[in-house]
Amino acid sequence: MKRLILLVALPIIFFSCEKDEIRQPILPEEPESPAELIGVEDCKKCIVLAEQLKNRVAIVDLDSKNIIWEWKAVESNVLTPHLSWFNLPDEAKPVYGGKYILLTASGGGVALVRVKDKKTLFYANVGGNPHSAELLPDGNIVTSSSTGNKLTLLKVDTLTYPDQGYKRTMFIEDGHNVVWDRQRQQLWATSNSTLKAFSYNNNCSQPGLTEVTSIPVPGPGTHPHDLFPVYGEDALWMSTTTNVYKFNIPEESFSLHSTALQRAIKSISSGPPGWPILHMQPKVQYWSDEVKDENGHRIFQQNDLKIYKARWLVANNFSYPENHMFQQCD
Fold first, then answer.
1. Would you say residue 30 lies in a domain?
2. Does some domain include residue 29?
3. Is the predicted pLDDT of residue 143 greater than 90, yes or no?
4. In sequence order, what are the beta bridge partners of 50?
5. What is residue 159's predicted lDDT score, i.e. its pLDDT?
6. Which of 210, 231, 245, 288 could crosslink 254 through cysteines, CB 3.0-4.6 Å?
7. Is residue 219 part of a domain?
8. DSSP 37-48
């Protein structure tokens, strides 16, 4: 009886081993390697973002839809007591042939950052919620502040920043933008319901501006927000609370831009022929997680981003000469 029990048990044990061998655990597949990010210098179509969720400026490769570069004050050479100046970036403008970024933030800061190594070459606190900055021909910087109602001129000296250099302010109502016009050697900026032009004194040590032109902005909406060169044209994009316009400079005339997106456009940026015209229209409060074209079609989107402005990373020959190189006042 004992022998019979043993003979019966053996096949059961053998079958059990065979079953274990058949049902080997399935190993998970190797995770895919993350896409290799290209360098900014190799990017064929890049967009520069003022991104407020992470208080950063980011550069997106539009072909891969990847963020390939970012600058955050907290990870830069900005001193710790000054980090709050760069809360809520609201402008990121490619300058010096796209090798540098000129940025402002609602926290009061303005900075010039070198793309190659992310070094902050110059920064300062201009206050008053600056919304835009511009390079002047000698390398000095002018900013426009909205709640501060002012333009601020800064002498750029990489040895005396952030709070010891020359600073001069002048009144401008609800300042949101500044654009240098290289052909006419003047600065354009809006002041509430007017578009103004200023001459520059070209005084490197004590920069100053003088108003030379004032042109009414068409209604019904006033309070212009963005002002930016139209790529390849002698014209400026301008957005108001209700409309987007193209301003023909030689004729001093406004024409309504044919776009599905008109209201509350925070930034508008055009590129070479065939490239879409970038529009930033807020979804929530002042930001959006996507960039659209003139027809309202999505160009770029990433969850949880708070994009305030978007600019093509292209040469700006309206404002700067070809082969524009970094310079500062002597």
1. no
2. no
3. yes
4. 57, 309
5. 85
6. 245
7. yes
8. PPPGGG-SSEEE
Domain hosting 67: range is 40-312
Look at 11 and 139; give whichever has higher pLDDT.
139
Spatial distance between the Cα atoms of 71 and 94, rounded to a whole number of angstroms: 13
pLDDT tens, 169-214? 999 999 999 999 999 999 999 999 999 999 999 999 999 999 999 9
Q: pLDDT tens digits, residue range 211-253?
A: 999 999 998 877 899 999 999 999 999 999 999 999 999 999 9
User: 34 near 64, Cβ under 8 Å?
Assistant: no
Residue 34: closest CA among 62, 56, 66: 66
H/E element, 9? helix 2-22
Give the contacts of 259 (CB within 8 A, at least 6 positions apart): 244, 277, 279, 294, 295, 296
Spell out the residues 6+ positions from residue 32 whose beta carbon is closer than 8 angstroms to its own: none
Q: Which two tokens stand for residue 237?
A: 């994009």
Gap between the terminal Cα atoms of the chain: 109
Per DSSP, 31 falls in state P
For residue 98, what is the domain's CATH number? 2.130.10.10
Quote the pTM value.
0.88
How does pLDDT run across 104-121, given as a tens digit for each residue? Answer: 999 999 999 999 999 999
Q: Cβ contacts of residue 89 below 8 Å, gap of 6+?
A: 50, 51, 52, 55, 56, 57, 103, 104, 105, 106, 308
Burial label for 307, CB within 10 Å (0-12, 13-18, 19+), is buried
Q: Which residues pair with 123 in a beta bridge?
A: 111
Residues in the chain: 330
Query: Looking at the 3D structure of the chain, how many domains does it have?
Result: 1
Residue 13 contacts by C-beta under 8 Å, 6 or more apart in sequence?
A: none
324 domain-assigned: no
**Which stretches of the chain are DSSP H helices?**
2-22
Q: Quick check: helix, strand or coil at residue 19?
A: helix
- Spacing of C-alpha 202 from chain mean position: 28
